[in-house]
Backbone:
């Protein structure tokens, strides 16, 4: 039983006791007793359904935790992951979504947050100016691109200088892009070195532009939505409810799948199936 269900049940009990004291005996008591019995039955059914769903989640989590480490082991060896979160996502949510990547052998190349200035109306003129400046440091800048598309490409190349061998020139250019974005207040976080795969953690909504840029410059990208409704990722693999202990396994498995050419839209509840696929 969830904490919310316990509180609701306790509230109903207290309410029923209070009504019993106030009403006493007689026709009114009979009327209230009938309504309370019906409500109690409905609550009992709701609790049973909630407990069954919770039990299923717990069993799935136990399976994922027990089998997951062996199933994903080595799949992301020699890979470096950049974990990018939007300003509306907490540090804890981002950390949880990426929590099982280490079991697959991935190293962390960068952990960063896109600040509110990334999309705020007040900073649009500044972003336009920065986009013009930063274009000179981008490899093959997109023609006719908007400022947001240029900045998305700049971020992608700052994190992933090359999907193959990273030369000193590649890394120097990536560092320049990173510095421009950080000094411009659009990005904050740490970059330890080049990455080749990316996790984008968002709450919901349309992240297709950024996700597409990250995917086109990396070996694999997955969008982990913290919410159940998710959003538009422009064809990039997604995991809804990805910022949960259960969803983290789905995120890791989905990223492994992208490296094998498989793109999909998943939920945290798909974790056992995705892990099972890796064991076949």
Residues:
């Amino acid at each position: 039983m969830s904490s919310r269900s316990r509180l609701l049940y306790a509230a109903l009990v207290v309410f029923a006791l209070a009504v019993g004291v106030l009403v006493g005996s007689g026709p009114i008591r009979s009327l209230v007793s009938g309504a309370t019995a019906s409500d109690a039955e409905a609550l009992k059914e709701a609790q049973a359904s909630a407990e069954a769903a919770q039990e299923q989640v717990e069993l799935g989590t136990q399976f994922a935790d027990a089998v997951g480490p062996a199933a994903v082991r080595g799949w992301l060896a020699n890979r470096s992951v950049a974990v990018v979160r939007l300003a509306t996502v907490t540090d804890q949510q981002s950390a949880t979504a990426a929590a099982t990547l280490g079991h697959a052998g991935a190293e962390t190349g960068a952990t960063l947050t896109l600040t509110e200035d990334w999309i705020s109306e007040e900073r649009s003129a500044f972003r336009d100016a920065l986009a013009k400046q930063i274009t000179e440091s981008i490899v093959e800048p997109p023609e006719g691109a908007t400022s947001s598309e240029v900045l998305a490409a700049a971020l992608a190349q700052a994190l992933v200088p090359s999907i193959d061998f990273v030369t000193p020139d590649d890394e120097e250019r990536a560092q320049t892009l990173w510095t421009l974005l950080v000094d411009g207040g659009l990005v904050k976080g740490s970059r330890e070195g080049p990455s080749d795969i990316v996790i984008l953690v968002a709450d919901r909504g349309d992240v297709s532009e950024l996700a597409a840029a990250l995917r086109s410059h990396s070996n694999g990208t997955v969008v982990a939505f913290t919410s159940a409704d998710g959003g538009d990722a422009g064809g990039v693999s997604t995991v809804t409810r990805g910022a949960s202990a259960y969803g983290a396994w789905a995120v890791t498995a989905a990223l492994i799948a992208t490296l094998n050419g498989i793109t999909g839209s998943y939920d945290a509840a798909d974790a056992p199936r995705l892990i099972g696929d890796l064991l076949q």
